[in-house]
Fold this protein.
Amino acid sequence: MEEEKTEEPVKKTLLKGLTPKELKDFFVAAGEKKFRGEQLFEWIYGHMAQSFDEMTTLPTYLRKKLNNYCELNSLKLVSTQTSHRSGTRKYLFSTYDNQLIESVIIPEPKRITLCISTQVGCPLDCQFCATGLMGYKRNLSPAEIIDQFLMASKEFGKSKISNIVYMGMGEPLLNYTNTLKSLQIFAEEKTRDISLKRITVSTAGIAPKIIELADSGLKVKLAFSLHSMFEETRSKIMPINKKYSLAENLEAIKYYAKQTDNRITFEYVMLKDFNDRSDDLNALIKLCKSIPCKINVIPFNSIAHMNPTGFARELESSQKFVVDEFVKTLRDNNITVTIRYTQGDDIAAACGQLANKTISESLSKEKTR
């Protein structure tokens, strides 16, 4: 007696994350008119459609065909948490392979900023960052990067997201190809309400990729995680500095500023008795006089929820009067400074805190297999 054969499910083609040209080519290859690619792109990124059935300008037969053979969404929304103190909202998303990532919406009087992730975990092991203590699983695809914006926009609803910062989980420039493709999609006119002028890519310092991004023509804003002007000190909290030195990165940053005609943002987490001394301040002032820039001063946010060990466990935020004096001296030297006061720390959504315990436990199990 012959065994009954079971048909394997058809693997569906994911259409989100494709450029207009790629969508046009897809429809032509499927025997459809090229302009269907433009229509689909506008539905996905202009109208933020979550299903093919919403795409009413496509004929019924085509929507049915797309439902049978194609996939639209790359993420599933698992949960949201909202800070009662600041209104900051944190999103937990699940990927197709059951990885978990986080994104954060930060509402402010003049802007609503979405902080998005580019990797599951992070390989850089920065000692002040909860994500760095998690370890690394994989890069996110262009669809997974963009879906954070599309799905958070849909869920948040009441106001439009005006700014995007690539400052969530992971190092964007270690996922350069997918980060670049997501930026190219955001750059399209039919992508709703987002201009590249309102997008910032943050990096811990991957010098060759900073130069590549400068030459890409996209001219997004660049934020550089500085945190110390001294090589040895920076290497202690940011191991990547041993591979790409601060000196090498600063040369790349000067090139970026020149190529894009953009001011650089220097991120500076204030750590007690570590990078808040007069020598640190004087070196920072000297740097700011050599590069068009502004500084985001960030009081260190606790990563105790990750149970850190070693040096990471010893880190403390500089005292408020030290931060205030540090900032005052910078401003007295005509340097533009913003203090990024803690927002969302009550839901572990503040700067440097993104690392859901469930995510961390999942990655730890992968390491021990």
